[in-house]
Design brief:
11 strands, ten-stranded mixed beta sheet
């Protein structure tokens, strides 16, 4: 039986987005034999507030304002319900691994000692039967030596958001008083890159700003010795398109192509998830993120009030876009697998628009990030608002790899 809360959310979702909430028949999919992928990545919002005021933040600066009515800190009962529900989910699906990201807001605001306790709770509940990877995604401002030592002790990996050069970072990632944070983040990364912290260094997250210098951005990030760099396109959609500085119709694609060349020609490069995924997908493999490709998304978010939601980047589309009406205290994680928004991110080609399906790159692109496809009323069955940029990047990498393969093999065909 559908609860009143779920019914109310789905009614509002049907009003805001025909696809998938009016047009996708989940029951018919299941009757035809389709089965969802269980949740393997759980983002837990341990703290709802942030000590920065980044101007592009999808939580605080976009359409959704639900954070205002939620507890600033996740209560103990919500945390325990999350651990218990995840434990049941793992047993039900006989899972051997799961990843939990302690997130915010800014998760370090709850204190490193508490984060360590949370990691311990998870491993105590799941560790005997399931490998648990616990991480935090932080802005880095509070990442002191003491904090790092505590996180290292509890085997918590640390991902840090940093937007490349000092000038670009300090333009966007500022305190509530408007002060730049690059120097504090750089100092934190200098600590994180020390040999004793190598095992807990997860990598860097960088939002692409068209019009900035991709070469200097790559070099700056490379200088922090990250094991992984992940470039993200800014969260935008057809109702709120991204800025496009300059005369090029593909400024984000151009930026990424230049960054790719820096990485590709680097004699000892770090991993760059986006570039690696494009190459693997071009060769017929599977991607590892929601940014591109057709692999099913297996992610759920638990908010500080216990709400089980879809990927939180959906908050950039409209108020309540991530909502499911489910609550971790009363609903099983399996219930989210029947939400049309979650199902739409698991069915691959069947979720793509006719425009995407007619494009020869769709198996690589995958329609782009689901979040970037939104158009008011129609919903999410559209090409990405970054469609032309993704084509620019993918075709460049395809041609670059093909030329190198041809050169290595002397143009011989099998």
């Amino acid at each position: 039986m559908t609860s009143p809360a779920v019914a109310a959310v789905r009614a509002e979702q049907r009003r805001r987005a025909a696809w998938p909430y009016r047009e996708l028949d989940v029951a018919r999919l299941r009757d035809a034999g389709w089965r969802p992928v269980p949740v393997r990545d759980v983002i837990v919002k341990v703290h709802q507030r942030c000590n920065l005021a980044c101007d592009y933040c999808y939580v605080y600066e976009h359409e959704d304002r639900t954070w205002r009515d939620r507890p600033a800190v996740m209560p103990a009962e919500i945390w325990q319900a999350t651990v218990d529900s995840l434990s049941r989910h793992v047993r039900r699906h006989e899972m051997t691994s799961v990843r939990v990201i302690l997130h915010g807001g800014e998760p370090l605001l709850v204190g490193a000692a508490r984060l360590g306790q949370l990691a311990g709770d998870l491993r105590d509940a799941l560790g005997a039967r399931c490998a648990v990877e616990v991480g935090v995604q932080t802005n880095g401002v509070l990442l002191t030596e003491r904090v790092l030592a505590q996180l290292r002790e509890h085997r918590v990996t640390v991902g840090v958001s940093v937007d490349g050069t000092r000038a670009n970072h300090d333009q966007h990632r500022v305190t509530h008083a408007g002060r730049g944070t690059f120097d504090r983040v750089a100092a934190a990364l200098d600590r994180l890159r020390q040999p004793e912290n190598k095992d807990c260094y997860g990598g860097l997250l960088c939002t692409v700003t068209a019009g900035t210098d991709p070469v200097e951005t790559y070099r700056t990030l490379r200088g922090f010795d990250p094991p992984m760099i992940n470039f993200l396109l800014p969260h935008a959609n057809w109702e709120h398109p991204p800025p496009r500085p300059g005369d090029s119709p593909t400024p984000y694609g151009d930026w990424l192509v230049t960054a790719f060349e820096c990485w590709y020609q680097d004699p000892d490069p770090p991993r760059v998830q986006l570039f690696e995924d494009v190459i693997v997908l071009l060769l017929g493999g599977q991607g590892t993120s929601e940014l591109i490709g057709l692999s099913p998304a297996a992610l759920a978010v638990v908010e500080t009030d216990g709400a089980i939601e879809q990927v939180d980047a959906l908050k950039s589309a409209y108020e309540g876009a991530a909502a499911t009406g489910l609550d971790i205290r009363h609903d099983e994680l399996d219930a989210v697998l029947d939400d049309p928004g979650v199902v739409a991110r698991q069915i691959g080609r069947a979720a793509l628009s006719d425009t995407c399906l007619s494009c020869p790159l769709h198996r690589v692109c995958g329609g782009g990030h689901y979040v970037h496809r939104y158009r008011a009323g129609a919903g999410f069955r559209n090409p990405s608002v970054f469609c032309a940029d993704l084509q620019r990047l993918i075709t460049h990498i395809r041609d670059r790899i093909a030329a190198d393969i041809s050169a290595l093999t002397g143009g011989v065909r099998a």
